[in-house]
Amino acid sequence: MPSGNMSLYLCIYAGGVRTYEYLHLYLSPDKRDKEKNRETMMLAEAICAKRLVEVRNGQYGFKEAQAVQLRDYVQRITEDKHGSTKRRYDALDNILAGYCRPSMMLTDITPAWFSGFMNHLDKQGLAKNTLAVYVATMRSIISQAHREGLLPTNPIVGIKGVGYEETNRTYLTTDEVRKLADTPCPNEVTKRAFLFGCLTGLRNCDIRALTWADVHEQDGYTRIIYRQAKTKGQEYLDISAQAASLMGERGSDNEPVFPLMSWHAVRQQLKAWVKRAKIAKHVTFHASRHTFAVMMLSVTDIYTVSKLLGHRELSTTQVYAKVLDKAKREAVDNMPDLLKTP
After folding, report:
1. 8 Å CB contact between 106 and 145
2. Which residue ranges does the chain devote to CATH 1.10.443.10?
3. CA atoms of 144 and 77, how far apart (whole Å)
4. Is the N or the C terminus of the chain less surrounded, counting Cβ atoms within 10 Å?
């Protein structure tokens, strides 16, 4: 707009038809209007939620917003999930099949039902973090149903979830990464992709989804512009020349940079590769991300590392600081000599 304001509109794609609804709401570029912009975005999101309910009611034939079966709803939103997230939602649906009756409605969810659901999970002998993930997923589903107007109120507000247990994050030392780089791998694409993860911090799912259209040359750097599969956040990541060399020769825009095999095949290839390199650690593909985080914390500040990893909260990155606390190590090294040597 001539004034510099940004106009907001909704892009609605339903039934094979794309339509646009201009909201007559505007964001100001003036930093002094930060609070006003925040209120404008809240209003836009409320309108978006309302339109989403209207579209889904029409698409799925929901005549009354509240007349929706719980498992029917879970299965429908699972259709939009991919990869490990989809597998988690499918597993949750199987758990619900053993806990609630098939005809249970969303509106039958009560605080007592949710507490019983947590007890049911606890009896399955799951690891604490796995239990915490399922509880958080169920909480997210209920909250989404409330936002979409399928529940008049959120029945589980105030109910405490299950806390996560801090786990050991396996990472590789610089020498171990070099050792892997010098060791043949059963699959060359898996090798390049894992080392790429060590040098960029990208998750396995984001490396899999990376196409050449996401790779750009800018100001002498190779920049990756991608949307995180986990957080859906848009990311801009400049990568090193070492990392860029692992991508190989550029292909067409729609081609994957790393045409990896199935999840199972990659796990087996990685296991054989690590064993061949004589590294006595249980290394998963995600260890490449941990490795990048630890290496970066040894050369730069935690805020920069958080941005490189695409974390929304600095507290998420602080877990790695416990693995390699450079400040503490430097403090110990700088302690003056107190004991006389003979």
Report:
1. yes
2. 174-329
3. 10
4. C
3-state secondary structure 301-330: CHHHHHHHHCCCCHHHHHHHHHHCCHHHHH
Q: Full-prediction pTM beyond 0.70?
A: no
Residue 293 corresponds to which tokens in the numbers above?
Answer: 């985080």
CATH of 174-329, picked from 3.30.390.10, 1.10.287.90, 3.40.50.1820, 1.10.443.10, is 1.10.443.10
Residue type, 303: Y
Question: 């936002």: which residue's tokens?
Answer: 147
